[in-house]
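Notes, p. 3: input format for complexes.
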Amino acid sequence: MSQGFRTRNLLISHPNMNKLALYVSFLHLLFAHAVAQDSPPPYIAPDYILLNCGSSAANSTSLDDRNWEGDSHSKFSPHNIQTISNSSTPTEQIPSVAQVPYMTARIFPNNFTYSFPVSSGLKFVRLYFYPAKYADVDKSKSFFSVTANDFTLLRNFSAFLTMLTLEPPAAVVVKEFIVPVLRTQYCLNITFISLDSYAFINGIEVVSIPNNLYMDNTNGTGIKFVGFDTIFYTFDGTTTLETMYRLNVGGKDVSGVEDTGMFRTWVDDSPYVLIDNFGITAYDLPNDTIQYTTETPSYTAPEIVYKTFRSMGINATANLNSNLTWNFTVDAGFNYLFRLHFCETLQEVVYLNDRVFEIFINNQTAERDADVILWSGSRGIPVYRDYIVLIPNGNRRKLDLLLALRPNVVSKPQYEDALLNGVEIFKLNRSDGSFGGLNLDGLVVPTSPEGNEKLTERKRTSLRIMAVIIVISASVIILGFISFRVSKKAKILGSRKVGDSNCLPLPSHLCRHFSFAEIEAATKNFDDGLIIGVGGFGNVYKGYVEDGSSTVAIKRLKSGSQQGAHEFTTEISTLSKLRHRHIVSLIGYCDEDREMILVYEYMNCGTLRDHLYSTDNPPLTWKRRLDICIGAALGLEYLHTGANHLIIHRDVKTTNILLNENWVAKVSDFGLCKIGPISVSITHISTAVKGSFGYLDPEYFKRQQLTEKSDVYSFGVVLCEILCARPPLVRTALKKQVNLAEWFRECYHEDKLDEIIDPCLKNGIKPECLKKFVEVTMSCLLHDRSKRPSMKDVVGGLQFALQLQGSSCDSPNFPELDD
Ligand SMILES: *[C@@H]1O[C@H](CO)[C@@H](O)[C@H](O)[C@H]1NC(C)=O
Ligand SMILES: *[C@@H]1O[C@H](CO)[C@@H](O)[C@H](O)[C@H]1NC(C)=O
Ligand SMILES: *[C@@H]1O[C@H](CO)[C@@H](O)[C@H](O)[C@H]1NC(C)=O
Ligand SMILES: *[C@@H]1O[C@H](CO)[C@@H](O)[C@H](O)[C@H]1NC(C)=O
Ligand SMILES: *[C@@H]1O[C@H](CO)[C@@H](O)[C@H](O)[C@H]1NC(C)=O
Ligand SMILES: *[C@@H]1O[C@H](CO)[C@@H](O)[C@H](O)[C@H]1NC(C)=O
Ligand SMILES: *[C@@H]1O[C@H](CO)[C@@H](O)[C@H](O)[C@H]1NC(C)=O
Ligand SMILES: *[C@@H]1O[C@H](CO)[C@@H](O)[C@H](O)[C@H]1NC(C)=O
Ligand SMILES: *[C@@H]1O[C@H](CO)[C@@H](O)[C@H](O)[C@H]1NC(C)=O
Ligand SMILES: *[C@@H]1O[C@H](CO)[C@@H](O)[C@H](O)[C@H]1NC(C)=O
Ligand SMILES: *[C@@H]1O[C@H](CO)[C@@H](O)[C@H](O)[C@H]1NC(C)=O
Ligand SMILES: *[C@@H]1O[C@H](CO)[C@@H](O)[C@H](O)[C@H]1NC(C)=O
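Output follows (819 residues plus 2-acetamido-2-deoxy-beta-D-glucopyranose):
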């Protein structure tokens, strides 16, 4: 028994779930004993493989009594294993590190694949690393990638550097993934790709996962996307997960052999709880057994997870003024799957509304009224809830993410309290099938001076690389560059002095340099009365230049904002070259005195939106609307294909389509959004989704990446508005809390479009024209990006719609196409 416990402490040192107690408490022993006695039988995994890499013993037993097969003569190893790899033992042996599987390693100078014949379905893949010195190879030089079938589990991974970041310090690194094996694959190939000098591995574990345990789509709605009321996430069977955290909330560490047959480790949550309200934990475990159900089968989590909990405590006054909060560090630029486990076990909590609480993840509401009795039906019945959380890329690569619970006061529950029993947090792979590269943020510098130097150097390199990436992504997205050229260019820009226009590639023949005095004169010293727009980047003023003979729009970027002058100038040099009838022209700029000011042509008739909603302006005729949307589409087509590089607007909406005195539509504000945050910020998304009828491409939520087809989607939303604009649609959509595109789609499928078309247009649209227009709109709004038309096709479709309107109509209101 005690041997098993020792094992647990040694075997399971997951890098991110490593807050393991290093002692064995007597109580703990009792707990484990009790659990073992009345737990339901564990899940029997059809595939269960433990491979002791570098070992030639047929069979070795780890401290937790599991049998590991040596890989030297294994059927999972390639037959030429002896010639393409070496087995080795670490020269440094730390007593606390278990013999099996860590005291043997397989070393690969080149690519190497283990092939595990397994059934289809999800598998846990656990990789065990002990980054020690093996023979004459340098542990700090080992960088490698690991793939599992089509997924990249680890990219440019250094077990040694990862080990240095472990908190609290540990000598071994365990990585856990959930990998799908398709019906057509029959095999799980785990490949080690050595990058610099060599790759190595100490142990590999493959364990089947019951169908429907994770990433299950049987709940047809999909998984709630935290912070977005109308967006749900569905797994399509092509996603891998990396385990970040698995906590037995309010309880003790649970070792793999105490799990329900999948050998997951669950750790005590106390290191993650914010100290200002530590809550209380179970002091007396319930005698009743946990009653598992078909929704929450017994393998979901061990009984001990559901029997122990953390709640806020008995002082309702105190509870109402605080949150019970956990703090997790995660990498930015990924989606995360949160699974929260609940089970009411207290005698007092019996009825609905006894204990109701709110759940926040990353400051966003995940549940307004979590009532575990409502969810489960009764005390003693466990339930879990899944959530997807989007952590966009930002200035920082690692973020602290808070999970907070607090009583729901609105429902006036019997107990003003909150409850949690378990948490699992997984990172979803990116669209390229990977989990990102080495992340050295927060690296602990090693004690040896030699390693120290190397590390600082590495860290510096990685910071430099990061700086380059930031410069690039902050400027207009230019695809088609090979990365080498990009970084070269960025370095050149980066080495120049800010504000020194001579050095900058600013095209004075294309765009004018204004002095700050000129700008001040033009805006009457930034007179508030001249403000025509307010945005996150600063204000837009109407201004008069050339002795008042010429009207311009002047955008003054907030000083002190994070965007550097480099990005500003890069921006200008790109934007000033864009010249198109349907693009708002950049006339000039001012970069004196750390000011960042852009001067644009002035558009007399304002934004398209000003003519669609809540306005005293007379309604636009259908013909004019068609002209406007064709113009805007031509502008976007130019950005996508006409300029030297692909330019993605990223913020297409009716307020960014401006109209001049002749009703010519021009696209504005491309570029400025790129001077701002590096990627779309969370507030930007929220505004886009909630405030502006959801212009944002739904695929963004999956891929966290905007493409030119995202502009096509947003343009589809603009088309909806052009057709339906005045209030009925918008009001209904807002009331129903659906986004405009979804609402439009629904009405289309229910054949109710005529109910939502702008009443001002009712009799003016020819049916053929309407049919074509709606067809174009629906195609832009397709969920699958690849099926959406290009802007060129959109232009073609709209021009055709205009012709249909013109040719079948003899009304003078609808003259023929003039372009
Ligand atoms: C390893 O040993 C266990 C028990 O000692 C035995 O059940 C198992 O069959 C052995 N496996 C192999 C591959 O020899
Ligand atoms: C195995 O180790 C020996 C001695 O260090 C070395 O000469 C040989 O190249 C290695 N073989 C492989 C495949 O790494
Ligand atoms: C190793 O695998 C990578 C990725 O599959 C491939 O690009 C590379 O050429 C391979 N190297 C060798 C030596 O086969
Ligand atoms: C891997 O990462 C290290 C340190 O971050 C870097 O020096 C090296 O160039 C990277 N290798 C590859 C192939 O990306
Ligand atoms: C795994 O590797 C084997 C041998 O190289 C190959 O035949 C098989 O197609 C691979 N399977 C997958 C799913 O990649
Ligand atoms: C299905 O998912 C929705 C949305 O997250 C949730 O409200 C509902 O409770 C779920 N149903 C079940 C049975 O889990
Ligand atoms: C569990 O059983 C013991 C002895 O039978 C009893 O003293 C204790 O109060 C019970 N605990 C609970 C939570 O019911
Ligand atoms: C409950 O908490 C409040 C506010 O934190 C405190 O003032 C009060 O003394 C507490 N009551 C008890 C009984 O501890
Ligand atoms: C969360 O944890 C990180 C790192 O452990 C720490 O820097 C940060 O201050 C914590 N956040 C809060 C709100 O306590
Ligand atoms: C509790 O958390 C929510 C969401 O993060 C936050 O809005 C609220 O201010 C917090 N309350 C307290 C008392 O910290
Ligand atoms: C979340 O709320 C905390 C305090 O309630 C605040 O410090 C933090 O900046 C917020 N984080 C985000 C991403 O809004
Ligand atoms: C994960 O990777 C696969 C394979 O590259 C890809 O098809 C899938 O879309 C990715 N999942 C997510 C959520 O991006």
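Residues 363 surround 2-acetamido-2-deoxy-beta-D-glucopyranose (ligand 11) (CB under 6 Å).
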